[in-house]
Write a structure and sequence with these properties.
Blueprint: E1 2-5, E2 9-15, E3 29-35, H1 37-48, E4 52-59, H2 62-74, E5 77-83, E6 89-94, E7 100-105, H3 114-118, H4 121-125, E8 129-133, H5 139-148, E9 153-156, E10 171-175, H6 176-183, H7 188-197, E11 202-206, E12 212-215, E13 220-223, H8 236-249, H9 254-269, H10 281-285
Parallel strand pairs: 1-4, 1-8, 2-6, 4-5, 8-9, 9-10, 10-11
Antiparallel strand pairs: 2-3, 6-7, 11-12, 12-13
Helix pairs in contact: 1-8, 6-7, 8-9
């Protein structure tokens, strides 16, 4: 069981040939589907065969109802709380080459509190791993609380956190741009060194079409990418993160984890959509 904590959005995806700033665009394809990093990871894990549950906030509106229905469809255990705010949503413009541009409205996600999380303390303690999206809620309170529970923690470090909070965290995941921004460095390897100096156990660094890197205090290991023709890159990073968590829980060697996670991301990129694009374990192995 993996408990995911963070954002749940409704994604509204538009497909167009190419974005031209200042121009009007017409899309012949519009999709509404579940989104948000924590929600995405929970679905990606479930499709890989790992039971997951999601702690997040939604509004009491049709968007929130849609999110609840989709989680049920995918088999994710819903630990959602309805707040007096509009459900968060994201407009995603997908160009012909697979590039996506996002416009986010945080909505009810901004109201995620420690109280929303701590009411599920028994579920957290019994989890094999807790995934936390660092940009959701009051980071300091939430991370300190999770550390007190002594849960194995995997943080998606999409936003900076106080360095001391990372001390003792088993694993983190982030992309290259985030690593430079979070550490205020200009070099990827300097960023890795600084993150490890904060006390992080291991780092999974997403490099997009350049592959991925694993780093701990003893090793830096590179995972080569798979050459693909992307259709839609939305959610690829979340699929990668789910692949890393799957590998950790199944005691895979690091090289195998990187290869497995890169496959998860690559398969997601050659399909349209997000949650529906995430692969099953059998698809990854094939």
């Amino acid at each position: 069981m993996v408990t995911c904590i963070g954002k749940a959005n409704l994604d509204i995806s538009y497909s167009i040939q190419q974005v031209h700033l200042g121009n009007n665009h017409v899309s012949l394809s519009v999709d509404l589907h579940l989104g948000g990093k924590a929600a995405n990871v929970s679905v990606a894990l479930k499709k890989l065969g790992i039971q997951s549950q999601l702690i997040a906030d939604i509004g009491g509106d049709p968007f929130g109802q849609k999110i609840t229905e989709e989680l049920k469809t995918f088999g994710v255990i819903s630990l959602l709380k309805v707040k007096p705010a509009m459900t968060g949503f994201t407009f995603i413009v997908v160009e012909q080459d697979g590039t996506n541009t996002m416009f986010n409205y945080i909505g009810a996600n901004a109201l995620l509190s420690l109280e929303d999380i701590s009411r599920y303390e028994s579920e957290l303690v019994e989890s094999d791993l807790v995934f936390y999206q660092a940009s959701a809620g009051r980071q300091k309170e939430i991370i300190e609380y999770l550390k007190k529970l002594q849960c194995p923690i995997f943080i998606e470090l999409s936003e900076p956190v106080e360095p001391e909070l990372l001390n003792g965290i088993e694993s983190i995941s982030l992309n290259e741009e985030e690593a430079l921004r979070v550490t205020r460095t200009e070099n990827t390897f300097d960023a890795l060194g600084r993150l490890l100096s904060f006390g992080v156990g291991s780092i999974f660094l997403k490099l997009g079409d350049k592959g991925a890197i694993y780093a701990n205090r003893e090793n830096i290991i590179y995972g080569k990418p798979y050459k693909i023709s992307p259709v839609d890159t939305t959610g690829a990073g979340d699929a990668f993160t789910a692949g890393c968590i799957y590998g950790i829980l199944n005691n895979m060697p690091v090289e195998r984890i990187l290869d497995f996670a890169n496959k998860c991301g690559a398969i997601t990129c050659i399909r349209r959509g997000t949650t529906e694009a995430f692969p099953t374990y059998k698809e990854v192995e094939n």
